Amino acid sequence: MKDVYILGIESSCDETSASIVRNGTDEIATVILSQIDIHTNFGGVVPEIASRHHVKNITMVIEECLNKANMKMTDIDAIAVTYGPGLIGSLLVGLEAAKTLSFIYNKPLIPVHHIAGHIYANNLVKTMEYPLIALVVSGGHTDLVYMEDEYQFRHIGGTLDDAVGECYDKVARVIGVGYPGGPVIDKMATEGKHSYQLPMPLDDDSYNFSFSGLKSAVINLVHNEEQRGNIINKEDLATSFQDVVVDIITKKTIRALKEFKTSRLILAGGVAANQGLRAKLSTVCAENNIDCSFPPIKYCTDNAAMIATAGYFLYKQGKFSGLELNAKSSVELK
Ligand code: KG4
Ligand code: ZN
């Protein structure tokens, strides 16, 4: 079969990214322009500022990606783009760029769900085999997804309130260690000890998660200690918080693997970069004979290579969109 080159475009949050991937496995070139430095000043992503930066950078990012790959638009077979979920103003920028290129160069347009992209980042490392459970943990999601076969998603549980990455970012803000909070708390957690008592969030029989109570517990603890004139040990608090998060995620993930009788687990999303989560899941999976794969950190956070990869599987199924495709801030994974 002829090689298939997909151009992926991602702009759902604060990364503007373009990538060319061959046959859903080989990354030819990727460009990612992160806005983290801009949003750090505000302690989180400011949607209006994010979309303005996407507008400024999108053309340059796509051009640079083609240059890096030494390819022209005429060498591309199809354009895959994130249409949702995400920040609406940000999504629209990547989507309009993709639609324009699709129209001008007469290339099929492939609509990719952002979470499908995160999951398919794993295929850049190792060909995915089914059935499997995907644990998607990011700034916007905490989801357990059962995949019986290629590009078949069954959402079995998710967060009822804050996503796990969002909770990391809020806790980091409360203890004043900057944005994005995940990597900082993760590092601090290796330096502290579990000395603060925090509630185990939604420890029930479902596959759902809830992190807002845990977040409030951290906020209350910090305020109470401050009012008493006590100094918080930030490293100890980071360890105590991370232990609880990792414990509940691991517990529900292992139960899902058992119930759905599969021994394959893949991780996806920005929080999959978490060292504590990686260490605990590796240990527990080894004890239970589960094949657990973590994408390298560069594929965990938002990037267009994962979108081009997911797009390849839709390309194979002929699942294209017309130019009426619209961005959706929230949309079911299916
Ligand atoms: O997947 P991603 O790049 O964007 C979304 O689609 O949300 O994930 C970003 C999230 C942020 O909340 C960030 O704090 C978190 O991933 N994150 C981490 C780590 N690295 C990034 N959270 C915990 N530990 C980490 N090492
Ligand atoms: Zn993401």
What do these coordinates show?
It contains 11 helices and 10 strands. It has 2 domains: 5-120 and 299-316, ATPase, nucleotide binding domain (Nucleotidyltransferase, domain 5); 128-294, ATPase, nucleotide binding domain (Nucleotidyltransferase, domain 5), CATH 3.30.420.40. A 5-stranded mixed beta sheet has the order 3-2-1-4-5, with helices on both faces. The two termini are 27 Å apart. Helices cover 43% and strands 18% of the residues. The chain has helices at residues 36-40, 47-69, 88-105, 114-120, 164-174, 181-189, 212-227, 234-259, 275-287, 297-300, 305-316; strands spanning 5-10, 15-22, 26-34, 78-84, 109-113, 132-137, 142-147, 154-158, 264-268, 291-293. It is globular, with a radius of gyration of 20 Å. It is of the alpha/beta class and 334 residues long. The mean pLDDT is 95. 5'-O-[(R)-(carboxyoxy)(hydroxy)phosphoryl]adenosine binds next to helix 5 and helix 6.
In terms of topology, how is this protein built?
Blueprint: E1 5-10, E2 15-22, E3 26-34, H1 36-40, H2 47-69, E4 78-84, H3 88-105, E5 109-113, H4 114-120, E6 132-137, E7 142-147, E8 154-158, H5 164-174, H6 181-189, H7 212-227, H8 234-259, E9 264-268, H9 275-287, E10 291-293, H10 297-300, H11 305-316
Helix pairs in contact: 2-3, 4-11, 5-6, 5-7, 6-8, 8-9
The chain binds 5'-O-[(R)-(carboxyoxy)(hydroxy)phosphoryl]adenosine (KG4) and zinc ion.
